[in-house]
Amino acid sequence: MSKFDQIRPYYDTEVNDAIRSVANHPMMKALMSFTFPDTEESVWMEQLKKTHSKRDFQINFIYQAIQMVLKKSSEGLTTSGFEKLDKHTPYLFISNHRDIILDTSLINVSLYDHGLIMTASAIGDNLVQKSFLHALSRLNRNFLVQRNLGPRELLQSSKLMSEYIYQMLFRENRSVWIAQREGRTKDGNDVTQQGVLKMLAMASDEENLMEYFKKAKIVPVSISYEYDPTDMLKMPRLMAEANDEVYIKEKNEDFMTLISGIMGQKKRIHLHMGEILDAELDTIAREHDNQNKQIQALAQVIDDSIQNSYKLWPTNYIAYDLLNNTTQFAGQYTEKEKQLFERRLEMRIDIENKIVREGFLALYANPVVNKMKHQNV
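Above: the chain sequence. Below: its structure as tokens.
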């Protein structure tokens, strides 16, 4: 047994058996019927059962599913920055976190379209509790982040994951995607958790930590949705925090959020690949000899890249103006776009509740605030 068996995706030798074990599952049938609405079940079933590698499964099925998701729930995906990447080089993609499934799926679709190495991607084990979702995630080259552990187990789990990411990048020539923080942002503030970087650093055998991160070829990624399909679902947690209460998730909340994120309306989506971090790491190494300070500085560099390259939509500017009772960005949207956004606001939340209204608007407005720190928008 490999020490990574608990968290790794399937090996290709395991793929066909795994597919056959879930091929008749109602959720697999629903996924395939959604993806191939004009195809007889026997046709896609036969193709599924002939699949023997993760790559074939991703390209022939997941890629097609994401194209259908984009068609049904968005007005299209645009990308920028991919021309900087080399097709034979693995990268460590660290991105802001908007949606549990789509963030990494859209990156992989775009990498494939640009002829680049697709990623192995981190996913919380709390999201794949159902056996079907667990199998699907492993077929889709996800590796598991173990959640809800005690301090000692968390340390062991972090070390294992760090070693697994090291193996992917440096031994298997495989790009890796990881979110900059645990859990999706609830307030639109894209901030890197230093704990994520400390976990990544655990596998380093370099005396100079920044040399290790240089070798890993970190690429900050910004993902931006015109509409957040889960905006309304984030409000109960916001209310609990405002009232100093402990927020307790509903039984199927993660699953419902997952489905809402995939199928909810997003309008336009943009994905930007930032510059590969290099000279910035030399500067950090030169200016800080303390590892904690280095990690802190690296988190800031990643945040600066993500926030600066974040694509702002009319919804962001409208929310900023509504929240601040101003017309500062009126030139960035039309009256019709403003009316549509205000209608969304009225339909999705109780606008009489000041905390919820401000929280909802801040979710869209904070990327504008963050970009204003870096440049004149």
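The mean pLDDT is 91.
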